[in-house]
Structure formats: structure tokens, C-alpha cells
Amino acid sequence: MPEQLSEQALDTLFRDARTYNNWLDKDIEEDTLHRLYDLLKWGPTSANCSPARFLFCRSVEAKARLAGHAMATNAEKIRKAPVTVIVAQHPRFYDWIPELFPHNPDAREWFAPNPDLAETTMFRNATLQGAYLIVAARALGLDCGPMSGFDNAAVDADFFADSEWRSNFLCSIGYGDPESIFPRHPRLDFDQACSVL
């Protein structure tokens, strides 16, 4: 059985982790992005379908293009971050199921003829994988600034015109400037958010 993480590790991943709005001038090497993906990819998805795709905007040019499709406050965050990830999703994720779910390769047929089920499965699981990205980044000592507030259709036309990928949300990653965070906001307590039957 795995051991419980230390309190310090839980603080790093959740309790002390914050959403950053500005970044220290410190680069992220491409090798770190490989490590990040190689960690997040192990998070569970339905039938191991893994519909998320990740475009790491690291160059000044790529970040400027992406910022052009975001609301003003988010555009500035994108430009200043070492990397902003377009968390995307592949609508024909099920074509990889024979490879990813080899004990039941026919599971592709759960989704291919059923576009409503495929759409729901894609969105749910790609969003989950985006959350795994955030937790994995924190585990590697990085900070995150996930965001909506951008034009999905414009991002897709600009970055994914030659593919079937579709954007879900954005997440800046880097080394956060502690001056850029807001005071810690409250969360719902157990009795407000949970029930036990």
C-alpha cells in the first residue's frame, strides 16, 4: 500500500498552493515540460481514453499570438509567464483506445457511433487531465495560473487549423511572484459541499 504523503507535500499540492497572476523572470527548460507530461499522463481517465492534448506556448511569438485571443488581464499574464499551456482535447480520442485500452480494444465502438457520449467523455476527461497538469506542476516545484477568459474559436483557428484539437482552458506555469496573489479566499466546508449516504 502507498504511504500517505507528508503534511508538507499536501501543503505544496493543495493547502498552500495558489493561483499566480505574475511571474518571476525564470525560464522553464523543455526537459521540465517533458517531466511534467510524463507525470500527469498517469492520472486516470475513462477507459484510459486520454483525450487531452497539450500545446506549450514557450516562445515570445507563441505567447503573443495566444495573448491576442485573451481578455486584457489574461493577455498580460500569458505574455509574462515562462509557459502558457493550451489544454486541448481531441474529438476522435477513441481512435487510440485499441492502443490505450488493449484488454478491450472494441471499447472504441462505445464512442465512435455515439457523438453525444464521445463529446461528454472527451470534455470530462480532458478537463481532468488539465487538473492533473496543475497538480503535477506543483509537485515539480512550479506554480500555476489556470484561466478561461479567452476566445476558444479564435485559439483553435490560430493554433489548431491543421489538426482536430480543440481548446479547453489555459494554464500559465512558472515560478510565481508572491506579490501577485490575492488573499486566500474561503472554501465551502464539508457540510456545505458534501453528503454521506
Walk me through what this model shows.
The structure is a single chain. The protein is α+β, with helices and mostly antiparallel strands. The chain contains 9 helices and 4 strands, in the order H-H-E-H-H-E-H-H-H-E-H-E-H. The protein has a single domain, classed as NADH Oxidase (3-Layer(aba) Sandwich). It has a 4-stranded antiparallel β-sheet. Helix 1 (7-15) packs across helix 7, helix 2 (30-40) packs across helix 7 and helix 3 packs antiparallel against helix 4. It is globular. The relative contact order is 0.21. The mean pLDDT is 96.
Keywords:
single chain, 197 residues, alpha+beta, NADH Oxidase, four-stranded antiparallel β-sheet, 42% helix
Numbering strands along the chain, what is their spatial order in the largest sheet?
1-2-4-3
Q: Main β-sheet, in a few words?
A: 4 strands, antiparallel
Order of helices and strands: HHEHHEHHHEHEH
- CATH fold-type name: NADH Oxidase
Low-confidence stretches are none
CATH superfamily: NADH Oxidase
- How many domain regions? 1
Overall pLDDT score: 96
CATH level 1 name:
Alpha Beta
Helix run count = 9
Radius of gyration: 18 Å
* Residue fraction in strands: 5-15%
The shape, in one word, is globular
- Per DSSP E runs of 2 or more residues, the count of β-strands stands at 4
- Helical residues, percent: 40-55%
CATH A-level architecture: 3-Layer(aba) Sandwich
> What distance lies between the first and last C-alpha atoms, to the nearest angstrom?
27 Å
Structural class: alpha+beta
